[in-house]
Amino acid sequence: MNGGEALEATATVPPEEQLGSRMGITVTEYDPDRVVGTMPVAGNRQPYGLLHGGANAVLAEQLGSIAAALHAGADRIAVGLELSCTHHRAATEGTVTGVATPLHRGGATATFEIVITDERGKRTCSARLTCVLRDKPPAN
Q1: Which end of the chain is more exposed for a tag (fewer CB within 10 A), N or C?
Q2: Residue 20: exposed, middle, or buried by beta-carbon count in 10 A (0-12, 13-18, 19+)?
């Protein structure tokens, strides 16, 4: 199961209604040890023209959640428990890239580091996401 299939299997709303789609996030690589995605700066800026810190948080949670869903498997879901982001430098144009890698993959929780960089490869944000892993609710 790839990351997209893992999320589609548990999604209750269509992709066009999900925040990641509205932010222009594209997931480019799914692997149990690494999930990679991009997001445009345009359309995701704060009033001063910088990439909004909340946009970084959305990218980090999207990638970390996919990684957690891959770890959880088809019969379980991953739900965000804690997200922290440190913003190191501003991105003002182009595209940022996030890479999620595991810090801990257990039976009840999974934690991932998400490093976001600009087009020059400079780190713009470091994030950490912990998800709780739960049994998939029964279908209605």
Answers
A1: C
A2: buried
**Is 107:69 a contact under the CB 8 Å cutoff?**
no
pLDDT for res 12:
75
Cβ proximity of 57 and 124 under 8 Å: no
Query: Whole-angstrom Cα distance, residue 100 to residue 114?
Result: 4
Amino acid at 99: V
Q: Is the dihedral of CA 75, 20, 31, 110 positive or negative?
A: negative
Q: Is 80 helix (H, G, I), strand (E, B) or coil?
A: strand
What pTM was estimated for this model as a whole? 0.91
Catalytic residue among 16, 61, 82, 119: 61
pLDDT value at position 5? 57
**For position 139, what pLDDT does the model report?**
76
- Does the annotation mark 61 as catalytic? yes
Q: Output b/e per residue, 50-75; b: 16+ Cβ within 10 A.
A: bbbeebbbbbbbbbbbbbbbbbbeee
